[in-house]
Amino acid sequence: MLDLISGKRLVFVGDSINRNQWESMLCMLMSAVKDPKKVYETHGRRITKERGNYSFKFVDYKCTIEFYVSHFLVHESKARIRQRRRPTLRIDAIDHGSSKWKGADILVFNTAHWWSHFKTKAGLVPLSNCGSSSLVMYGFQSCID
């Protein structure tokens, strides 16, 4: 597998399910490395269960295996609905962290279980090209009920 991804960036983006997939991939690849000292986290951090983004460099293969947290892959924001600000999703805008994924050779996305979250069940999503108070009923609502 390391020969297949030599010189490439393998990037996992998503929630805890994708993080587990990333950790499993990292463990499998580490077991194939002759010298574990030639694998390191590019920011010098240890893997913890706390929220975080990670990038592991495999020196001999000139590749990185990376993970970035993004629960929906799209931009999470707030919209004023009547007198309250409510969490919403901007389906016309990708997550702010997407610049970190740019240039990846292989992207693995997963956010499946978050789409039943209260932000999507409300069915309200503001669109940036409409007025700031414009809301639309999002068709996804019928799919998750």
UniProtKB/TrEMBL annotation:
Record domain Trichome birefringence-like C-terminal: where: 1-120
MF term (GO), any: O-acetyltransferase activity
Gene Ontology cellular component terms for the protein in this record: Golgi apparatus
Domain of life: Eukaryota
Family affiliation: Belongs to the PC-esterase family. TBL subfamily.
Name used for this protein in its record: Trichome birefringence-like C-terminal domain-containing protein
Organism lineage string: Eukaryota, Viridiplantae, Streptophyta, Embryophyta, Tracheophyta
